[in-house]
Amino acid sequence: MQFHYSNRIASLKASAIREILKFTADPTVISFAAGNPAPEAFPVEDVRRITAEILSEEPISALQYSLTEGYPALRDALKKRMKDVYSIGMDFDELVIVSGAQQGVELSAKALCNEGDVVICEAPSFVGALNAFRSFGAKLVGVEMEQDGINISLLEKALKENPNARMMYLIPNFQNPSGITMSFEKRKAVYELAQRYDIVILEDNPYGDLRFEGEDVPAIKTMDTDGRVIYCGSYSKILSPGLRVGYLCGHKDIIGKVIVGKQAGDVHTNILAQMICERFMTQCDLDRHIAGLKEIYKKKSSLMLHELDKHFNPKVTYTRPQGGLFIWGTLPKDCDMMAFCREAVQRKVAVVPGTAFTAQETDPTQSFRMNFSTPTDEQIIQGVEILGALTKEFC
Amino acid sequence: MQFHYSNRIASLKASAIREILKFTADPTVISFAAGNPAPEAFPVEDVRRITAEILSEEPISALQYSLTEGYPALRDALKKRMKDVYSIGMDFDELVIVSGAQQGVELSAKALCNEGDVVICEAPSFVGALNAFRSFGAKLVGVEMEQDGINISLLEKALKENPNARMMYLIPNFQNPSGITMSFEKRKAVYELAQRYDIVILEDNPYGDLRFEGEDVPAIKTMDTDGRVIYCGSYSKILSPGLRVGYLCGHKDIIGKVIVGKQAGDVHTNILAQMICERFMTQCDLDRHIAGLKEIYKKKSSLMLHELDKHFNPKVTYTRPQGGLFIWGTLPKDCDMMAFCREAVQRKVAVVPGTAFTAQETDPTQSFRMNFSTPTDEQIIQGVEILGALTKEFC
């Protein structure tokens, strides 16, 4: 038979990253294309012990249906940590557990965006989020980034030109893919613009805990006296992405709608995973674990930057992130970026072409994303050497 | 600020069942309102051992990002079982793991239904699925049930009258909420109508393994020479609903679109849970476990029917299911069903009013759903006695 798909899904393509990830199943390919935590970053012993305890002490609770809004003890622990550590959470705020931050973004779009509504995002931005917006027929408007975050005057221009903009989607810390962190001044300016143009901000912060250099910058959500910021957090980078546990903190009215959407989406998030997160937060030393992660990623980031400095053609620029998992490289104007990425894969090094991260696939970009958390040190050294040689041939 | 929600979410209400479930958090209320497996139905020892083995043998695989389409070993085990046990799976079929059957329904709707498209469903039908369709702006057209399944001539009428019908949503085995099983003849007739009107069938079969009386009836999917049937299965009723693992088997083109939608939805289903399902299927005696479940539910169903026969006003009718978890009661025409349900809760017995399961909330119904899997035997005896007294006062 001839199948007829919905407009929303017909227009959506498989993520270029995940397609490349499949390709990197080839064990001879050095992958800088993923965004996976380092294998040594998993607290395996703790998870093993906690999980055994849960299945011994409260097995039925861990296997039975649970509440859509999430495991109450986890929600309480998270609210407390958000308040104590990040100064997040007004009286009007509520918190819902979601199946990874990806679902947090998807449900925010589901609750707030009609087909044709505009979502303003950083350019470049995280492909998974962009696809979530596209999957509800939202129109993406990208606003250029500078070294200290989104360009504020271009953002205002975009807001003026798009009165049907429903939401700004921002990743203020160690942005994916650029690695850029938004300055405190820009965060204030962004919030003021959101007030002036009466728009919701979706603040995605999966990497915020992974700062290995410089000083923490308060989240936009800390300034949120209006309830217009939805803050999206995740356990994927500090505990495990395979467990698929994230959370949204926002005005209780919005969170109420998100819960209704989640009920129709997957009823609730895997409860065993939620219980693991809760016990990990309350019974283990989370701060010490995070300190260990920072050490791992600082070392890996420094190594990759050191090798880039050594091998890359000086005409190629790249960001120097203060945290997170990614470095963003940019080829000079006259270079064919797609050909570069294709040739890199031929030589057994995978990077993600920048087109994966643009608001429109046809937007021009000379950039590509490199990840330093997944490869081993040896792979970083070897892979950057290969890429470096390529930059000298290509540019 | 004034929040603006999407049309799809603004029109969606929290499920009446889950609202009542919250109410039943009161431990003095006997709940016939849930659809939870019996606590004694969980293979706790097996899950405990398997989980420990996974976290000892392959902890990184259990915690790291995984593939959107699902854990390969689980997909293989499922394809084999579907073929061997249920005769399901043509050459053109593919299988994707989803975060519970609810997500299977939601992603099918996401892939196939535009806003305003019609989904034809049984009347009554499962509220969670109806809400998934509503959450994409689909219009629901309900078709009356008979004792052997959907009314075929009314189904044809609905197909004629709704040329923009995209999908039929059917639960052929021990339907939720009615407990009705569709006869083989009707399954054939339904498939022929789907061919004649060139429409997709979403066959939801969460309870199929839980037959405790009568003979198995082949799934509609076994007749699917065209690739127009999407079959939706689940581990929720045979292993654990808290793990949130289900699957869709359908034409590879449709499944490909579902995978793209899932990537934007939650990246992938919790991988530890998928590994638990795989080991439970391949290392434990699944058929023996299912035989044990049938014993449990046969006993509970028989007990509830016995008590209903004893206490209910003969003017109240109810179905006698051959499997599954639910009995569907119907009050005589002159009785106020909503008042009955409200008074029942006052007397500490919760049932779900039939309005939760109608295509339109304003559709008239005299029915209510009773679940026998969750309450203890004592609660079944006590609860039915209270409801029985009420039927004699009300009708």
Order of helices and strands of chain A: HHEHHHEHEHEEHEHEEEHHHEEHEEEH
The tally of strands of chain A reads: 14
Q: What gap, in angstroms, lies between the N and C termini of chain A?
A: 49 Å
Mean pLDDT of chain A: 95
- Radius of gyration of chain A, Cα only, in angstroms? 21 Å
Task: Give your account of this protein's structure.
The structure is a homodimer of 395-residue chains. In chain A, the strands form three sheets. The first copy, chain A, has an eight-stranded mixed beta sheet with strand order 2-9-8-7-6-3-4-5, with helices on both faces. In chain A, strands 10-11-14-13 form a four-stranded antiparallel beta sheet. In chain A, 59% of the residues are buried. With 395 residues, the first copy, chain A, is an alpha/beta fold. Chain A folds into two domains: 7-42 and 288-394, Aspartate Aminotransferase, domain 1 (Alpha-Beta Complex), CATH 3.90.1150.10; 45-283, Type I PLP-dependent aspartate aminotransferase-like (Major domain) (Aspartate Aminotransferase, domain 2). The first copy, chain A, has helices at 7-10, 16-23, 44-57, 59-63, 72-86, 101-112, 127-134, 152-161, 184-196, 252-266, 271-283, 286-311, 337-346, 377-394, and strands at 30-31, 93-98, 118-123, 139-146, 149-150, 165-170, 200-204, 229-234, 246-251, 317-318, 326-330, 349-350, 352-353, 367-371. Chain A contains 14 helices and 14 strands. In chain A, α3 (44-57) crosses α11 (271-283) and α8 (152-161) packs parallel to α9 (184-196). Chains A and B meet through α1, α3, α4, α6 and α7 of A and α1, α3, α4, α6 and α7 of B.
